[in-house]
UniProtKB/TrEMBL annotation:
It comes from Asticcacaulis currens. The pyruvate dehydrogenase complex catalyzes the overall conversion of pyruvate to acetyl-CoA and CO(2). It contains multiple copies of three enzymatic components: pyruvate dehydrogenase (E1), dihydrolipoamide acetyltransferase (E2) and lipoamide dehydrogenase (E3). Coiled coil: none annotated. This is Pyruvate dehydrogenase E1 component subunit alpha. The keyword Glycoprotein does not apply. PANTHER family: PYRUVATE DEHYDROGENASE E1 COMPONENT SUBUNIT ALPHA (PTHR11516:SF60), PYRUVATE DEHYDROGENASE E1 COMPONENT, ALPHA SUBUNIT BACTERIAL AND ORGANELLAR (PTHR11516). Residues 31-327 form the Dehydrogenase E1 component domain. Heterodimer of an alpha and a beta chain.
Length: 338
């Protein structure tokens, strides 16, 4: 039996001089701005009492979902935890259906019964939205097992955070994935603070890309604030998994601007720290600078901003006018009907 490949860390993959087309720059700018503006509105609706339960915003982390999605092909699956709205939009879900789910309306993607943390859309390959910390990792591994069994060439992109990286089920999943060389890319969105505790205070080792080393799973650390660094790493990892070599780990060094959830005042970090990240590392500002350097006129960028504003406003209106689910919906989608 051949030895398992030694886990490798290629260091942090970050910005580099790239030959990027104007169309590609505009595409990623549009997708990230959509997520940013959508989440800002969701936060406002939550503050108005129109969204119940928990609500975890993706503001600051947009480059991860958009860059990873750029490496996916038809049939690939995405599964994540409860900071999921950005992933849904990046996967191509209708903003109206996502916002209506947040407000608990029948027009939502889960008919208003799932809320912020439990949305699914099989058509776009989005498998949730899961409220139990780390639970999606074993489910994502199961999706990869199905791909392996069917030999369909698809990959499961399984996301979790730095807080979930210490969960036992994560390592059970790593072991199974490597044992059978399942086509799964584990994406660790390291936003540094989990639910409110810094990584350095909670983890004995902080290089999360190497958490699969004992299983022979390679990994690398990526600048998760740079959409092109994410895309390039995603393409490498996806090709590795698709080729039959097994799982791959990507640690995305990113940052959330808001608290863990809407109820978190985030007093465990300073305002100056957050402002510094916004000023020096913001993923949208980064790509906007690239657009300006590519000679894109301010009017063209403004047109995209206005288009996104209209899309989000339409989603908000739909989410407030779509009817609430009929009480009979309590009994649907529980058991498979014959």
């Amino acid at each position: 039996m051949a030895r398992a490949a030694k886990a490798t860390d290629t260091g942090t993959t970050g910005s580099a001089k790239r030959n990027v087309s104007k169309d590609e720059l505009l595409k990623y700018y549009r997708e990230m701005v959509l997520i940013r503006r959508f989440e800002e509105r969701a936060g406002q609706l939550y503050g108005m009492g129109l969204i119940g339960g928990f609500c975890h915003l993706y503001i600051g982390q947009e480059a991860v979902a958009v860059g990873m999605e750029a490496a996916s092909i038809d049939g690939d699956q995405v599964i994540t935890g409860y900071r999921d709205h950005g992933h849904m939009l990046a996967a191509g879900m209708d903003p109206k259906a996502v916002m209506a789910e947040l407000t608990g309306r029948i027009g939502g993607s889960s008919k208003g019964k799932g809320g912020s943390m439990h949305m699914f859309d099989i058509e776009t390959g989005f498998f949730g939205g899961h409220g139990i910390v780390g639970a999606q990792v074993s489910l994502g591994t199961g999706l990869a097992f199905a791909d392996w069994y069917r030999n369909n060439g698809n990959v499961s992109f399984t996301y979790f955070g730095d807080g979930a990286a210490n969960q036992g089920q994560v390592y059970e999943s790593f072991n199974m994935a490597k044992l059978w060389n399942l086509p799964v890319v584990y994406v660790i969105e390291n936003n540094e603070y989990a639910m409110g505790t810094s990584l350095a205070r909670a983890s004995a080792t902080t290089n999360l890309s190497q958490r699969g080393a004992s299983f022979g799973i390679p990994g690398e650390t990526v600048d998760g604030m740079d959409v092109f660094a994410v895309k390039e790493a995603a393409e490498r990892a996806a090709e590795y998994a698709r080729s039959g070599k097994g799982p791959y780990i990507l640690e995305m060094k990113t940052y959330r601007y808001r608290g863990h959830s809407m109820s978190d005042p985030a007093k465990y970090r300073t305002k100056e720290e957050v402002d510094e990240v916004k000023t020096t590392r913001d993923p949208i500002d980064h790509i906007k600078t690239m657009l300006e350097q590519a000679g894109v006129e301010e009017a063209e960028i403004k047109a995209i901003d206005n288009e996104i504003k209209a899309i989000v406003l339409e989603a908000v209106e739909f989410a407030q006018t779509s009817p609430e689910p009929d009480p009979s919906e309590l009994y649907t989608d529980v058991y498979l009907e014959a």
